[in-house]
Amino acid sequence: MxxxxxxxxxxxxxxxxxxxxxxxxxxxxxxxxxxxxxxDMVHFVVEAALGLKTGVFGQIAAxxxxxxFHVEAGGALSAKERQRAARxxxxxGAKLIKAQGRDGELxxxxxxxxxxxxxxxxxxxxxxxxxxxxEAERTRASLGADERARIDAAQPRVFEDFERLSxxxxxxxxxxxxxxxxxxxxxx
Length: 188
Known about the structure:
Helix content: 40-55%
Strand order of the largest sheet: 4-3-2-1-5
Number of strands: 5
Oligomer: single chain
Structural class: alpha+beta
Radius of gyration: 17 Å
Order of helices and strands: EEEHHEHHHHE
Distance between the termini: 11 Å
Shape: globular
Strand content: 15-25%
């Protein structure tokens, strides 16, 4: 699966996901633009590092839509075929979301923890920063010991990937894309 993170404006990005034998999915605009690392790129890295098979990107790879992507307009499909594919996509996505189990929740919690942890080294001390770190401590305490151990073990890889991808993301101009392969995270 190829995930295109497209810098589509000054403070805007979109996503395009190509999956072998499945309809192309898009989200435009995608939420959570960040000049250093967009929210969905954080999820991508975290889910790959933790091996979450039913997080956002795992369930998209399995044929879902994560509840927020839609089938790309145009392309080789006729309007009728695209409508049928979209209906099947939504049904499959809903089924996969229901079956996510702990991976879906862990994806959100871990993405939050890694994002706060990575950014904390470059953010100045402020009431907002202290509040974010305090919330991260509460979130971490809510995890089981095995989940905390998984997160701790993945931290070096995640932070290294954040640095590498952040550098590449900041260098993009409007209209350019950073294309990542799921689940390896290799830049294509």
